[in-house]
From TrEMBL:
Residue positions binding FAD: 54, 117, 312, 318-321
Protein name, UniProt field: Dihydrolipoyl dehydrogenase
Superkingdom assignment: Bacteria
Native source organism of the sequence: Salipiger aestuarii
Residues of the whole record sequence present: 106 to 570 of 570
Organism ancestry: Bacteria, Pseudomonadati, Pseudomonadota, Alphaproteobacteria, Rhodobacterales
Further information: The active site is a redox-active disulfide bond.
Cystine connections: 45-50
UniProt entry tagged with the keyword Flavoprotein: yes
Length: 465
């Protein structure tokens, strides 16, 4: 073909989607090349997403819990923060995981090419590496080029206006920080900076934080941050940010009229946009829609049957666990297996404190679609385990089809909600009904009992809470 090298299976982008596809295809016996422009494998998730954010959230939560102990008879001195130490804990976690990926790639004889890849034809890609241009021809390719933060065009080009990557870099602890966007990423980063000492303002356009989750699940977090943060502004938009030597002056427009406030940093967390337009997909004849998403079928094939796309670049929800499952399908289909992406549901989790986790049908969705649901909710104020953690604000809610009693949705708020939700996800995938959950013996005293108890509430076997 005249190319510098040939891959039976070529993967563009080494995030959770890309490295999973590469490893699965190698395990199935294909000769695999993985192209990545960054020094480290792991993509957004491992380097500037899921993992560093969770390491910092752990530090924030431990600080809060230590302070909360004063209500239980144990007091510590006020914390002192060594920012270099916090940063190196986070970098250490990331380094272990990304280093582990190098080892896994080596073990599978996956060829890693460092550079930016762009298609040069239906079966060839051109990679700009530090040593010059390389071409790789391929039989099958997977586009796993991910997404990047959305920028707001009216914000000034100023080093004090940052995105999630800038926030995770933890350059300093601003005295006052504005977080634009009350979604999961904004709220997680707000929690980190609040614990480290920043005064936080959150501004959200919609009438609730995390608008895609049910209001009852979000309220416990809302109550907590309303108390702790300087301001939580709903139904409000930022119309202007002016950079001055002293700070960033933001103009807000909301229910309280138009007003200004000054900040040391502005974190923009208003969503992510797909990188589909950056890989010259048209040179391979692959369709990219006007937003930059690449349309695929249930086998993760693009309009070119030998080219697949997976992960953030194929659409919402932009979550690592979705990318990983799509990746396996793409690799298996390229090997001639009849795999399809057939998940009934994809769970979502905000790793705030309390955590908010939900899956499947929400109550708001049921209402807007006119779907009848039967609900069972168990308040954690009645959970011995929750109270012994010093927490009473959580809730476990299950939604069932009233006819079949099958579980169709779940929402959990409280410490470890994300881990607890996994049982509900499995229940939905398995077609479990309320009785299955209620009759399953959950260990006592655990937070997991609240799932069995919520099912009992829906069955009417517990009524008096
Ligand atoms: P990415 O991880 O975006 O990887 C794409 C890779 O492709 C990158 O390494 C990029 O450098 C490379 N690339 C792109 N174009 C080219 C090119 N032309 N040539 C070579 N390389 C290229 N998800 C969760 O499930 N749980 C969480 O807790 C969570 N937390 C998050 C927190 C933050 C702050 C952010 C920003 C995101 C978070 N996410 C979370 C989302 C998650 O990171 C993404 O869904 C996931 O990384 C998507 O994986 P991917 O493989 O599609 O792409």
């Amino acid at each position: 073909s005249g190319a510098d090298s040939h891959a039976e299976f070529l993967v563009l982008g080494a995030g959770p989607g890309g490295y999973t596809a590469a490893f699965r295809a190698a395990d199935l016996g294909l000769k695999v090349t993985l192209i990545e422009r960054w020094d480290r494998l792991g993509g957004v998730c491992l380097n500037v997403g899921c993992i560093p954010s969770k390491a910092l959230l752990h530090v924030a939560k431990a600080m809060d819990e230590a302070q909360a102990l004063s209500a239980h008879g144990v007091s510590f001195a006020a914390p002192t923060v060594d920012l270099d130490g916090v940063r190196s804990f986070k970098d250490g976690v990331v380094g272990k995981l990304t280093g582990g990926l190098n080892g896994l790639a080596r073990k599978r004889k996956v060829t890693v090419v460092r550079g930016t890849g762009r298609f040069a034809g239906p079966n060839v890609i051109r990679v700009e590496t530090a040593e010059g241009t390389q071409t790789v021809s391929f039989d099958h390719a997977v586009i796993a080029c991910g997404s990047e933060p959305v920028r707001l065009p009216f914000l000034p080009d100023d080093s004090r206006v940052i995105d999630s990557t800038g926030a995770l870099a933890l350059a300093d602890i601003p005295e006052r920080m504005l977080v634009v966007g009350g979604g999961i990423i904004g709220l997680e980063m707000a929690q980190v900076y609040d614990a480290l000492g920043s005064k936080i303002t959150i501004v959200e356009l919609m009438d609730q934080i995390i608008p895609e989750a049910d209001r009852d699940l979000v309220m416990p977090l809302m109550k907590r941050i309303e108390k702790r943060y300087e301001r939580v502004l709903l139904k409000t938009k930022v119309t202007k940010v002016e950079a001055t030597d002293a700070g960033l002056v933001a103009t807000f427009d909301g229910p309280n009229g138009i007003f200004e406030a000054e900040f040391d940093k502005v974190l923009v967390a208003v969503g992510r946009k797909p990188n589909g337009a950056l890989v010259a997909a048209d040179a391979a004849g692959v369709t990219v829609d006007e937003r930059g998403f690449i349309p695929v079928d249930t086998q993760m094939r693009t309009n070119q049957p030998h080219i697949f796309a997976i992960g953030d670049v194929v659409g919402q929800p932009m979550l690592a666990h979705k990318a990983v499952h799509e990746a396996k399908v793409a690799a298996e289909v390229a090997c001639g297996e009849k795999s399809v992406f057939d998940a009934r549901v994809i769970p979502s989790v905000a790793y705030t404190d309390p955590e908010i986790a939900w899956v499947g049908m929400t109550e708001a969705e049921a209402k807007s679609k006119g779907v009848k649901v039967r609900k069972g909710a168990f308040p954690w104020a009645a959970s011995g385990r929750s109270l012994s953690l010093g927490r009473d604000e959580g809730v476990t809610k299950l939604l069932f089809d009233p006819d079949t009693k099958r579980i169709i949705g779940a929402g959990i708020t409280g410490p470890n909600a994300g881990d607890l939700l996994a049982e509900a996800v499995l229940a939905i995938e398995m077609g479990a009904d309320a009785e299955d959950l209620a009759l399953t013996i959950h260990p006592h005293p655990t937070l997991s009992e609240t799932l069995g108890l919520a099912a009992e509430v829906s069955e009417g076997t517990i009524t008096d809470l």
